Amino acid sequence: MALFEVPGWTVTTPVAAADSKKRKRTAEDPEPPEPTIDLQKLVKKHAEGDDASSTSSSRTQRVKELGKSLVKKSADRKRQKKLEALEEKKKTISLPKALAASEKRSSSASSSSSLARPTKRAKRDHESDDKPLPTIPEEPTTSLTAMQKSMKQSLDGARFRLINETLYKSDSQHAHEMMQKDPKVFEEYHTGFRHQVQSWPTNPVQHYISVLSKRPSRTVIADLGCGDAAMARSLVSKGLNVLSFDLVSDGVYVIEADICDKIPLPGSEPKEGEKSDGQGQVVDVVVCALSLMGTNWPKCIREAWRILKHDGELLIAEVASRFTDAEAFCSVITSIGFKLTMKNEANSHFTLFELKKVARSGRTEKEWAGIMGKGKMLKPCEYKRR
């Protein structure tokens, strides 16, 4: 029995190759087929060929181990081939092409289809960008849409209400300083005022223009708190002399003055213990159309008395909702030196008063302080927050 003879196995002598010289297989040579091993057939064949020793557990165990080793070698060889194929594929991957010149890129980009994928924008460093942001010029109101015009009117109305409430709740000195620092406030206020007037059933200024236009020519009228001087613009052409005063001058009709401090017109008051109409006055009619706004408004009435001639007229139009007690209001005015001749409460928005100047006695500073301190009798016009 041969040394390596196993029952059921046959050993044959290998045939010598025609060319005994060994040579390495090149990449062009085809890969030899991988031997396949059928483990079940191998065990069956061994069992059939050696019945005598089939009970030998050691021999069967050796056959199983041999089969397992052959399967493992076959799996390792396949795994190695896959790794070699992967390495070869990596070597054959082409490198990216170099970018074309800028001119070529621009020409190719222009000729490319609109469906071409857009190039990514480069990231910008905002901190190092010194270029200022573009400014958006203001569009003229003529180019605004209907909705934009409506929104602008709402903003203008809100601005007007804010200024209006400030004027009612502060004294005339504070209002004067505010207008001097920013004259645009005065313009914004009266722009809003003109817009608000459109919703009123009547306009007190237009009422007085209609009434005073019937007065004799050369009648001197002092419009205190004139706004945009609508009265002067209408009556001067009819031969009436209208002197317009407000916190900001327009350079044409309006004279700058704090009407609750000192009106730049001639006139005097009687001395203490003396009763008279004063001297030097030139004004026939004083008009206060919605102008008793500051908390020190009684001083305006005192100035009106000082500049009016004997039997001169004082015309007052005020918002009806400001009065808590109209009789008390009239009492303050008559104590300064006037006589009430007419009160008109027919209008739902405004109350009209007509008064005439009368002689009075001079008062002490303490007496004047008591009268001037009654300005809070008129409530300020307040608006709901929106």
Protein model, in words:
The chain has 386 residues and is of the alpha/beta class. It has a domain of 176 residues: 3-Layer(aba) Sandwich (Rossmann fold), CATH 3.40.50. It has eleven helices and nine strands. The strands form two sheets. It has a seven-stranded mixed beta sheet, sandwiched between helices. The radius of gyration is 55 Å and the shape is rod-shaped.
Query: What is the CATH class designation of the domain at 202-377?
Result: Alpha Beta
Distance between the termini: 117 Å
How many helical stretches?
A: 11
Gross geometry: rod-shaped
CATH architecture of the domain at 202-377: 3-Layer(aba) Sandwich
Percentage of residues in helical conformation = 25-40%
Strand order within the widest sheet?
Answer: 3-2-1-5-6-8-7
Q: What can be said about the biggest beta sheet?
A: 7 strands, mixed
Q: What oligomeric state is this?
A: single chain
The whole-angstrom Rg is 55 Å
The name of the CATH superfamily of the domain at 202-377 reads Vaccinia Virus protein VP39
The run of helices and strands is HHHHHHHEHEEEEHEHEEEH
- The low-pLDDT segments are 101-116, 125-139
List keywords for this structure.
two-stranded antiparallel ribbon, SAM-dependent_MTases_sf, Rossmann fold, 7-stranded mixed β-sheet, RRP8, alpha/beta, 39% helix, S-adenosyl-L-methionine, 11 helices, RRP8_N, 386 residues
